[in-house]
Amino acid sequence: MPTMLYATINQETLVCLSHKVGECADININFRLRETGFEQHHQLIAAPDNFNPDLDLPTPASVPSSPTPAVPPPIPKPTTIPPAITSPPRLTQKADQIAAQQAWKYFERNWNPQTGLVNSGDNFPWTTWWDQGSALLGIHAAYQLRLLPKDVFQQRMHTLLNTLEKLPIPQTGLPNKAYSTDTAQMRQLNNKPDPKGLSGWSALDMGRFLLGLYVMRSHYPEYSSRINRIVARWNLAKLIKDGWLNGAIPDSGGKFREVQEGRLGYEQYAAYSLKLWNLHALKALSHPPVQTVQVDGITLLIDQRNLKNSGATNYLTNDPYVLWGLEMGWPDTVKPQVQNLFQVQAQRFKRTGILTAVNEDSLDRPPYFLYYSVYANGQPWQATSVREKTYPHLRFLSTKAAFSWYALMPDEPYSQRLRNFVQDLTSKNNGYFSGRYENSQLGINNSLDVNTNAVILESLLYQARNKRPLIF
Fold first, then answer.
1. Distance CA 111, CA 155 (A)
2. Residue 37 has pLDDT above 90, yes or no
3. What is the pTM of this model?
4. CA separation for the pair 329, 44 (Å, rounded)
């Protein structure tokens, strides 16, 4: 899920193809590039009723400490669709209206008229597809909340779709990991030119972008045929391998190495996003290797694939769970994990007096990006860089997490406290800051990015639609 500042530092953390603990230390995957064809792609474009928000995850009380045994996929249950909205969404509270206007300022400042793409970071013409998924959902939310008129929305959508129709695609058949937002040319993760598209692809990033396209296709049928043609250009089947999410990283000689992507939370969020397009990562959905841990006396599920046994950290943070709730809705089987994740942060505040809302976020100082987790690699409350170095002095409260928890759990006193704390955490003309450091001497985390401001707009639309997830 690389954001701009993360990606400028390093590649995504590598993860191995095996989900079994201890089998990842010296993995070497050989991969040959295949010629891209279009004939297989059209069948992947799903109908809206393809989505089923049920996940066969055990509840925290019943999870074994050993890897989850292979079991047949769960029998799909009927989709529960929230009641239809009969009137246009509207924010009735002044604080919500002000927040929406402030978040939209980021988009006004960072939308590129040449391409329709939005900068990942303030005034930085570069992006990943995770970030463009956020941009799509943020623009959708802003239009629904009447922050931009219809003709402006249509013009921006036309510009973006025109760019996507002409987007340079590598021989992999999938969009490169990074692009310039002002020219739409392929870039490396460090923002250097990548004319051959040798940076590989990310299944997690593509999952979020495809979710954004799905929302646009569903809510604005006039764009459906163009979106379908765009997606048909891409070899989406490569995003899943042996039932797991499948990405690719550069290898020697201009080749790629395919790797399994995602840990518990992120993995299921992206897998459900891909399922919207009839791409089924059944093992990621139904068989994640999980175990239980206790953090401050509260039981949580974590991924058994950690840094030591797989080469990738098992971050347990808010982002995938709150996005899942806002955009697709939580299945009942995930709600115990979500509730406990919220409660452990509220309890830390009660115990320490430190307002806590963990997340992955960009920073305004080195190392410029951190995963702040409730639990990671055997330790609670870890703030870890992509190079796996810990920065306990840079723990922070995430603005987008605070807005999201309030939208999802508005009756909880702790979520109300979080929202009040970040309401005014804004740049006057440039949008919302990423957060505030827990160390009061460090003050505000002045980083400005598309993900923070997009998720704020999403959360406000979710409120205005009476807690109806965005895909519906």
1. 12
2. no
3. 0.86
4. 23
